């Protein structure tokens, strides 16, 4: 199921921008509230595998319940194509009520 779901999502998203081999992206996979986080990670792994096969590098990923809808089953996938400026900005710290990110020096 996760394989099929990941493929369906990417078949819709990838041609829309379009994304190409060599692109770097941020992937955000958000559950809608009732999907267990473990299942979200299983789905994300399939998404990452497909992107890797297409030569699209996931620079950063976010997996969790970022946009929930009162215990609804399912997930949303957002891909943001990065350029140098966006890459620098996505690495910045964030501290808000709904989202925290710490700067990583890895």
Describe this structure in words.
With 106 residues, the protein is an alpha+beta fold. It has a single domain, classed as Hypothetical Protein Tm841, Chain: A,domain 3, CATH 3.30.1180. 37% of the residues lie in helices and 25% in strands. It contains three helices and five strands, in the order H-E-H-E-E-H-E-E. Helix 1 crosses helix 2. The longest helix is centred in the middle third of the chain and has 17 residues, at 37-53. The chain is globular, with a radius of gyration of 14 Å. The chain starts with a helix and ends in a 5-residue tail after the last strand. The model has no long low-confidence stretch (mean pLDDT 94).
Furnish the topology, listing elements before pairings.
Blueprint: H1 2-16, E1 24-31, H2 37-53, E2 57-64, E3 75-81, H3 84-90, E4 94-95, E5 100-101
Parallel strand pairs: 1-2
Antiparallel strand pairs: 1-3, 4-5
Number of strands: 5
Q: Which range best describes the helical content: under 10%, 10-25%, 25-40%, 40-55%, 55-70% or over 70%?
A: 25-40%
Low-confidence regions = none
Quickly name the level 1 CATH class.
Alpha Beta
Observed structural traits:
two-stranded antiparallel ribbon, 106 residues, alpha+beta, three-stranded mixed β-sheet
Summarize the structure.
The chain is α+β, with helices and mostly antiparallel strands. Helices cover 37% and strands 25% of the residues.
């Amino acid at each position: 199921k996760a394989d099929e779901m990941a493929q369906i999502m990417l078949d819709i998203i990838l041609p829309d921008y379009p994304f190409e081999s060599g692109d770097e992206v941020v992937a955000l996979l958000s559950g809608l509230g009732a999907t267990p986080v473990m299942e979200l990670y299983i789905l994300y792994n399939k998404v990452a595998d497909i992107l890797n096969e297409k030569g699209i590098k996931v620079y950063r990923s976010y997996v969790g319940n970022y946009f929930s809808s009162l215990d609804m089953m399912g997930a949303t996938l957002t891909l943001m194509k990065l350029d140098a400026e966006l890459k620098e900005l996505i690495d910045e710290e964030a501290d808000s009520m709904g989202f925290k990110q710490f700067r990583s020096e890895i």
